[in-house]
Amino acid sequence: MIIRTRGLRRVFRSRRSTVEAVAGVDLDVGAGQIFGFLGPNGAGKTTTLRMLSTLLPPTGGEASVAGHDLRREPDRVRQRIGYVSQEGGSYDDVTGRRELVLQGRLYGMSRARAEQRAAELLESLELAEFADRRTKTYSGGQRRRLDIGIGLMHLPDLLFLDEPTTGLDPQSRARMWEEVRRLRDQGTSVFLTTHYLEEADALCDRLAIIDHGRIVAEGTPEELKREVAGDVVVVGTTGTTAAAREVLDAREFVRELTEEDGVLRLYVDRGETAMPQILRLLDGAGIALSTLSLHRPTLDDVFLRKTGRSLRETAA
Amino acid sequence: MKLLRDTWLMFQRYLWIFLSNPAWVIIGVIQPVLYLLLFAPLLKSLVHVPGFPPGGAYNVFVPGLLIQLGLFGAAGVGFGLIAELRAGVIERFRVTPCSRFALLLGRALRDILTLLIQSVILLVLSIPFGLQASIGAVVIMLALVALIGLGISALCYAAALWLKDENSYAPLVFTLSLPILLLSGVLLPLQLAPGWLQAIGDANPLLYAVNASRVVFTGHGSGADVAKGLAIMAALAVVGVAIGARRFARAIA
Ligand SMILES: Nc1ncnc2c1ncn2[C@@H]1O[C@H](COP(=O)(O)OP(=O)(O)OP(=O)(O)O)[C@@H](O)[C@H]1O
Ligand SMILES: [Mg+2]
Predict the structure, then answer these.
(1) Which residues in chain A are closer than 8 Å to B13, comparing Cβ atoms?
(2) Domain extent for B222
(3) Which of A103, A158, A186, B217 could form an SS bridge with A153, CB 3.0 to 4.6 Å?
(4) Is a pLDDT exceeding 90 seen at residue A80?
């Protein structure tokens, strides 16, 4: 396990309020994978990451990161991890190359070694062209790649990425995914946070869903979705949904029925057998359909099931 | 060893940031020139004001200007730190094994270096106006400026880490630095002040630096005042660095 936590907690106290940002988190993250931390704004993702990367002392609980105890050996942990914060970490007035070289030097590299490693990274992150320009002249995607390069300078075993793709256009996001996968394939474990469902689904080998400081679900994206239900059938009617609801609710093949944006979502075991039954039932009741479609459940369905809210709404 | 190495790395970073910005370098050079050109014409007639210390107008005033330069120069250092804090740079450094002490010292040494260069410019420019200074006086003066720079900039870094925001940092340092300046006797001799104000002034560490610098530049006064000024500024530096280093080591929650 590259990360193991038990009962990890963090409480922020101020004069006016007490916020339990992380309320007892147990995590087991295996080495060599991309582990995702999915949750809405304020769920406690950054706070957890900051604790695991030695920036913030936990209020309670224990953790070992990259083989070392977080409380007793923070220096050892620091040597083995890289951390790229939500804000980034590079400074406007400094060139990309200088930021990289300094980072390497802070981990004890000689100047020559740091310069060589910086050149390697600039090449592989396709930043060589801008290496000697100040970072304020970089595009969002270039800046983000540099920040990740900074986190990789000392060849860490484990890289923490806090929302690596927030604010990137779809093209840059796809590139970032490629980059993260390449890292994993080279043997670096990656722990990243995101509030994008698609990202958690497509990029992560395993993920944990966090809400209000608690893990509400954990597993591979496939496992999580399978746990919700086999399939989701979306039913739209020409009139109000009330009549359709009445007909479909409490049928034994419908595990759960929710309504969102004026359409019904039916969680069923097998979509292929459920669809004909639904058609027959609605037809029999004289209800006209506007849409009928079959979906694999998304991680949003998982979130909805576990928390009663949609991640799309809470993240907006 | 590691502390020295990390301090050197940080010092280089901040020196490069300063030198690579021509605007800052130009402002840094012009500042002492302006101080001198705008104050000098006022000095001629001021010498005759009752209570004005003996020793020649420039020899009385230039030490005060240097201390003012040190105070105001060091008060502004927090802005750069707040910008870095916002960009996540400080967190990035805190995740590395870099010495926490070096995070403070490296920046503060850069601040001291720029202050010393400005001081030398001001001193050299004052010579044609009639400043007379021995090597010993200049060395003690620069030592005082360096200690003030270290102590005040470390305290300002602590304030910046605490407030994390220019909009509260700026009013704090400007509100504090004005009374500190007035009560140090740099601009007007505190002998002119009523008793209660003098009593407050006595609690101001910078007053002792001003006294010490005037002793060495005018030759009037005792060597004990010089030692006292240096000792109090050294104490200010130690306290400032201790507070600043604690702030850098603490989680920036
Ligand atoms: N330094 C702090 N002081 C007080 N409260 C804090 C502090 N940092 C975080 N919090 C609170 O802790 C909770 C969790 O915050 P955190 O930054 O971990 O969320 P997040 O999941 O990273 O959210 P986002 O997606 O917006 O980045 C929030 O309610 C936040 O207001
Ligand atoms: Mg966050």
Answers:
(1) 94, 98, 102
(2) 2-41+54-251
(3) A103
(4) yes
- Domain assignment of residue A281, yes or no: yes
Residue B48 maps to a domain: no
Task: Express each pLDDT in B91-132 by its tens digit.
Answer: 999 999 999 999 999 999 999 999 999 999 999 988 888 888
Residues A132 and A233 in one domain: no
For residue A257, how many other CB atoms are within 10 A of its CB? 18
In a shared domain, residues A68 and A168? yes
Residue A310 pLDDT greater than 90, yes or no: no
Cα separation values, B59 from B45, B126, B131, B183, B214, Å: 15, 9, 6, 20, 7
CA A86 to centroid of ligand 2, rounded, Å: 6
Confidence of residue A243 (pLDDT cuts 50, 70, 90): confident
Q: How confident is the model at residue A172 (pLDDT cuts 50, 70, 90)?
A: confident
Sheet arrangement for strand A34-38 = A81-84, A158-162, A189-194, A34-38, A206-211, A214-219
Sorting pLDDT into bands at 50, 70 and 90, what band is A157? very high
- The reply to whether residue B92 touches residue A85, judged by beta carbons under 8 angstroms, is yes
Distance A43 CA to ligand 1 centre (A): 7
The CATH number of the domain holding residue A149 is: 3.40.50.300
Ligand nearest to the CA of residue A210, numbered in listed order: 1
Does residue A151 share a domain with residue A68? yes
Establish if A103 touches chain B: CB-CB under 8 angstroms. Answer: yes
Give the number of domains in chain A: 2
Can you name the residues that pair with A1 across neighbouring β-strands?
Answer: none
**Contact A42/A20 with Cβ under 8 angstroms?**
no
B58, part of any domain = yes
Which residue in A47, A55, A92 has the most chain B C-beta atoms within 10 A of its own C-beta, making it the best mutation to test that interface? A55
Q: Does B16 touch chain A (CB under 8 A)?
A: yes
Average pLDDT over residues A290-307: 84
Contacts of A238 (CB under 8 A, 6+ apart): A288, A289, A290
Mean of the per-residue pLDDT values of chain B: 90
Whether A298 contacts chain B with CB within 8 A: no
Contacts (Cβ under 8 Å, ≥6 apart) of A73: none
Residue A316's pLDDT band, with cuts at 50, 70 and 90, is: very low
Within a domain: residue B46?
no
**Which residues, judged by CB distance below 6 Å to any ligand atom, belong to the binding site of ligand 1?**
A 12, 19, 21, 39, 41-47, 86, 195; B 253
Whole-number CA gyration radius for chain A:
23
pLDDT, residue A314, reads 56
CATH of the domain at A278: 3.30.70.980
% chain B with pLDDT above 70:
96
CB of A108 less than 8 A from some CB of B: yes
**Beta-sheet pairing, A68-69 with A81-84:** unpaired
Domain containing residue A58: 3-220
CA A12 to centroid of ligand 1, rounded, Å: 9
The structural domain count of chain B equals 1
- What pTM value is reported for the model? 0.87
Please give the ipTM for the structure prediction: 0.89
Does residue A34 carry a pLDDT above 50? yes
CB contact under 8 A, B97 and A57: no
**A105 vs A272, B7, B24, B62, B158, CA distance in Å?**
60, 12, 27, 42, 25
